Amino acid sequence: MSPGFRYHVASLAAVFLALGVGILIGSSYVQGPIVERQTRRLAELRQQFIREVEPARIANRRYADFVAAAGPYLVGERLRGVRAAVVQTGDYPDCVRTVQEALEQAGAEVGGVVVIDPAFPARLAAGQGIAIGDAATAIRRLAAALARPGGDRMLGTLRDAHLLDYRGDFSQPAHAVVLVGGAREGMASRTSRVDVPLARELAALGARVAAAEPEAAAVSSIPDLAPAGIPTVDNADTDIGRIAIVRALGAPPADYGVKPTARGGILPPHPSTP
Asked: Mind listing the pLDDT tens digit for each residue in 148-158?
C-alpha cells in the first residue's frame, strides 16, 4: 500500500472523527440547522470513502493475490541444484522463515539456518570465546563453516562459545547464503562488524551472497551494508520481496525493494543464468 494511499485514508478518518465529535458536542448545545449540516456532511464523506477508498483497497488486495500466485512462475526452478544457507544477523526470525520458504520454492536445498547472537561482537571484544580468536578470525571460521564441507564441527565450536546457534545440516558447502538483518533498535555496529565482513569472506570463498530484511524493520541495516558490495532486498517478508531475494542471488550488487535506499528498483534484473 503506497504512502499516498495511506495518507488519504488517514485524512478521511480524521475528518470523520472531527465531524463525529462536532456532532456530539453540537447536539448538546445547538439544535437544528447546524447539526443537520454536520450530519449531511458526515454522510457525504461516508459515501466518498466508499467511492474512493474501498475500490483502492480491493484493487490492492487483488494485486497482492496476483503477485502471490505469480511468484512461483516468476522464479520457477531458478535455484534448482543450489545448496543454500540462511544467516539471521538481525532481530526478525519471521523474515528468516519467509526467506527460507522463498529459496525452497525456487528449488534450492536449504541446508540450515544460523542465528548470530546479538552480543557476538561484544563477547569477542570482551575476550569471551577466546579459544575462537578475535572477531576477524571468528568471522573467517564462520564463513568457512558455511561455504566449505564439514561445517558442522566449526559451527558447534562457535555455538559452544555462545556466539551463535544453528539448526540443519552443514556437512555440505552452501553455494548461496542470504543474510537476514534489520533491527528493533540501533544495530549499525553489528552490521559493520558482522554482516559486512561475513559477506566479504563468503564471496571470497566463492559463495553467492545477498542480504535481506523485512519491510517494516524498525532500523534498516541496508545503508550500513554498502561496503559489502552485495545485492540487498528491503522487503523480503512480502510476496514481491520473496521474488526479489531469489533473483538477487546472481544479480548485480544494488539495493532493491521499496525503501528510499532501493536505488536498484523494486526487483533485480532478470539474470541470464541461475
From this structure: 999 999 999 99
